[in-house]
Amino acid sequence: MQRRLMYFFKIALIIQLFIGISAWAGQDASKLYLPGDITQEQAHQVMAAAVKKAVDNKLLMNIAIVDAGGNLKAFMRMDGAFLASIDIAIKKAKTARSLNMSTYELSKLTQPGQELYGIEVTNGGMAIFGGGELIKNKDGLIIGAIGVSGGSVAEDMSVAQAGAAVMSK
So where does this one cross the membrane (predicted)? Predict the structure, then answer.
């Protein structure tokens, strides 16, 4: 009898959980969206511009886009891009957003003797070389960031800047 009761309790719990998840999924999506966040459509535009720049320059890149909160919004690993660059691209985007500066600008502040020397070992690791850029809208509001990895630092920066520039036009 006790086993049967536990069985029905588990079934009831699963049903209740399912109903709760269904209700949550049906909520107004704006409640899960921060004002100033990059939209999915905007992220696709940024991604398209970055990919175009990479393709035009015959580069194989990993491209990550995060929202205003630093959460991954879009990602692409181009065919043949380095596997190690997956995490690097994501870290570049998150680093740029969390410190509100490009990772190239950050790199200058992380040199020995500078005030942010050693910051790369904090927060689970930060990227302190170029390829992470803030994404700002036409009004200059930060709506996210892009991180690119797979080429030289200059190539990563060029692709990231091409993607980010789309939103400020």
Answer: none
**Residue 145 DSSP SS3:** strand
Its pTM stands at 0.80
Q: Are residues 47 and 7 in the same domain?
A: no
**Residue 36 pLDDT level (bands cut at 50, 70, 90):** confident
Q: Do 26 and 81 belong to one domain?
A: no
Q: What is the average pLDDT value for the chain, to the nearest integer?
A: 87
Q: Identify the pLDDT of residue 23.
A: 46
Dihedral, 102, 104, 106, 107 alpha carbons, nearest 10: 170
Could you list the residue range(s) of the whole structural domain that residue 8 is in? Answer: 2-31
Residues 19 and 69 both lie in one domain = no
Check if the beta carbon of residue 156 is closer than 8 Å to that of residue 150. Answer: yes
